[in-house]
Amino acid sequence: MTADEVHVHKFDETQTPEGCTFLFKRIRRSFEQVLKIIQHDFQIVVYLDKDGRMHEAYLSAEGHPEFIDKFPGTHASASYLTHLGFSKYVMGTPFFREMNRIVAAKMNTYCQTLINWTRKGAQYLGKLTEHFKNLLFQKTVLSIVTKLGSVLF
Questions:
Q1: Are 76 and 28 in contact (CB under 8 A)?
Q2: Element (H, E) at 9
Q3: Element housing 94 (H / E)
Q4: Which residue, 28, 34, 61, 80, has fewest beta-carbon neighbours within 10 Å?
Q5: Is the pLDDT of residue 150 over 60?
Q6: What's the start-to-end Cα distance of the chain, in Å?
Q7: Burial classification of residue 44, based on how many CB atoms lie within 10 Å of its CB (0-12 exposed, 13-18 middle, 19 or more buried)
């Protein structure tokens, strides 16, 4: 997968634990959409600590993002996943039409990939919705809402 704009985020070697040995570096990819699709390549470092244990980390350099904005199980940033969900479920845009827009933005991926990303986002949103529903139906919250409702209406 590629996008029409790529940002490479290098890591800061000064942030590694003292006494570690670098094994290799690799790229972890995340996609974000603003008005165009931007590809963020985060440089990941794999190293051995003093005790010989292997670790993997993104150590942001100055002027680069502090963390990898990538929704779990996808290559999509939270904002891009929001766009896909809004486009599909609010605007009613079919995935094949979204694919045409993505191809025009010079990003290469498959329609099934977008469907899978949206499904994973929906699963997380379902858990969040359930949590808020449980929170809302607690007796103390309901009494506050009832009191506010009587004040407002």
A1: no
A2: strand 5-9
A3: none
A4: 34
A5: no
A6: 53
A7: middle
Residue 59 CB partners (closer than 8 Å, separation 6+) = 11, 12, 13, 15, 16, 45
Sort strands 54-57 and 21-33 into parallel, antiparallel or unpaired.
unpaired
Distance, in Å, from the CA atom of 65 to the CA atom of 76, rounded to the nearest integer, reads: 16
The range of the structural domain enclosing residue 80 comes to 5-152
**136: pLDDT strictly greater than 80:** no
Q: Per residue in 26-85, pLDDT tens?
A: 888 888 876 678 889 999 999 998 999 999 999 888 889 888 888 888 999 988 898 888
Which residue do the tokens 């040995």 mark? 21
Residue 95 pLDDT greater than 60, yes or no: yes
3-state secondary structure of 91: coil
Does this model's pTM top 0.70?
Answer: no
**Kind of pairing between the strands at 54-57 and 37-48:** antiparallel
User: Based on the structure, what is the number of domains in the chain?
Assistant: 1
